[in-house]
Specification:
The chain is an alpha/beta fold and 426 residues long. The protein has 13 helices and eleven strands. The longest helix is centred in the middle third of the chain and has 22 residues.
Length: 426
């Protein structure tokens, strides 16, 4: 899901035609040398095989060009459109301030399914091998719906990328390039969830995601990459802070909640050390404190979108509400320990008009009809008792039938003009 303004899209065909147009299926000479190792290679996986293609054409790629590659920073983008051309273009992004796309198309491939893990694997490994760097930043641009589909929706191929497919693709990438991706950002709505982050815990160093929606133009890459070019020795933690600060500034008049986390710490200190103890304790004492637990859930910061109820709740705030409502020493102690470890694992978090947000949410439905049994296929459910606790809250004696959740809020109901004042800020 992505919210965007209804700005008139003009001259789209001109933008496409103005770009270098190699014959489909041919591999042009790679713009950069494989022998040159840059400080950073930035990889943009731009899924426009849906209703986001105009935004990518008019805004995203042009914002990338406002930064442009140099000897220290490679900016590489893979773009799949729905209607404006057939196939997939891979760009080496170069500096330009015009409204045209002037960057070299270094590969023009046949149609690819952007919801296929093999397509993600092929792009990332190709970029890493042809544009080697000391550090790699991957940003995934599309609609998002938290742990549920759709994410990286490809309308041509009627497919989306599941979290298990994302995990498998990232595992294969790590094996191929023999290292973790330094930074991954989810440029998609509602993806700042523990369930999402935990799926890629073994393959990514630092992750950035939004608990709330992501607005139409997505991350302000012109600002983020401008700063990275000024300081190409920036480390992963600093880059993740820059992503959040620039997003907050670019959309300063709109609500936001975003966090950056070191995945190794999040796995060891939150998932393996404190979450399971906390949830097991709640489960064991549920009958005694059911009223307090349900009140805590009701008062926890939620991330709903208009009439679409996600049942995504801020994990830190849930533990805080439990600690304030239940006087049992063991439960209070476990809640405070979970809060403390979330703090310790947080590189950076920021909210605007989303009070009690702390950068990471979790699925916490309150009735059987809202529960999707496919949730149990995620690693967090396989490796912890969180889903057992959720089942207790639902009084669910057996797995319910999986329901088809058709998110997302229709775009025609939303009109937020957020891009007029800061488009040229660097």
């Amino acid at each position: 899901m992505r919210l965007f303004s209804f700005i008139a899209i003009v001259c789209i065909s001109v933008l496409i035609i103005s770009n270098t147009s190699p014959v489909m299926g041919f591999n042009l000479s790679i713009t950069n040398s494989k022998n040159h190792v840059a400080n950073w290679t930035v990889m943009l996986y731009l899924d426009g095989d849906n209703d986001l293609e105009n935004i990518i054409i008019e805004k995203v790629i042009n914002n990338l060009e406002l930064a442009g590659s140099d000897g220290n920073i490679n900016i590489i983008a893979q773009f799949d459109a729905l209607t404006y051309f057939k196939g997939v273009k891979r760009y080496y992004i170069t500096y330009d301030t015009s409204n045209d796309i002037i960057s070299d198309v270094v590969e023009f491939l046949d149609e690819k399914n952007m919801g296929d893990p093999d397509t993600l694997y092929d792009f990332v490994t190709w970029a890493c091998e042809n544009y080697p760097a000391e550090h790699y930043y991957l940003s995934l641009f599309d609609h998002g719906n938290g742990w549920r589909p759709p994410f990286l929706k490809d309308e041509t191929n009627h497919d989306t990328l599941t979290l298990n497919e994302l995990k498998n693709a990232m595992n294969d990438i790590k094996k191929r390039i023999n290292k973790k991706i330094d930074v991954v950002s989810f440029d998609a709505c509602l993806m700042g969830m523990l369930e999402v982050f935990y799926q890629i815990r073994d393959t990514v160093d630092v992750v950035v995601g939004s608990e709330d929606v992501i607005y139409g133009n997505g991350l302000p890459y012109h600002m983020i990459l401008h700063e990275l070019k000024k300081n190409p020795h920036m480390n992963s933690e600093s880059l993740s802070k820059k992503i959040i600060d620039d997003y907050s500034y670019y959309y300063s008049h709109f609500p936001m909640a975003m966090g950056a986390f070191k995945l190794e710490n999040l796995t060891k200190k939150v998932v393996e050390k404190t979450l399971d103890v906390f949830t097991s304790c709640l489960y064991e004492n549920f009958s005694e404190f059911e009223t307090e637990i349900r009140e805590a859930i009701d008062h926890t910061r939620a991330y709903n979108v208009e009439t679409y109820i996600t049942h995504y709740k801020d994990l830190y705030d849930f533990a805080y509400e439990i600690s304030n409502r239940i006087e049992d020493e063991k439960i209070k102690k476990n809640a405070l320990e979970l809060i403390n470890e979330i703090k310790n694992c947080t590189i950076y978090e920021k909210e605007n008009n989303k009070k009690d947000s702390h950068g990471i949410s979790i699925y916490l439905p309150v009735s059987k009809k809202d529960y999707d049994v496919s949730y149990e296929n995620l690693d967090l459910c396989k490796n912890t008792n969180w889903d057992v606790f959720v089942s207790k809250c639902l009084d669910r004696k057996k797995a319910s039938k999986s329901i088809e959740l058709k998110s997302i809020l229709p775009r025609e109901l939303i009109e937020k003009i957020v891009f007029l004042s800061k488009d040229n800020v660097l």
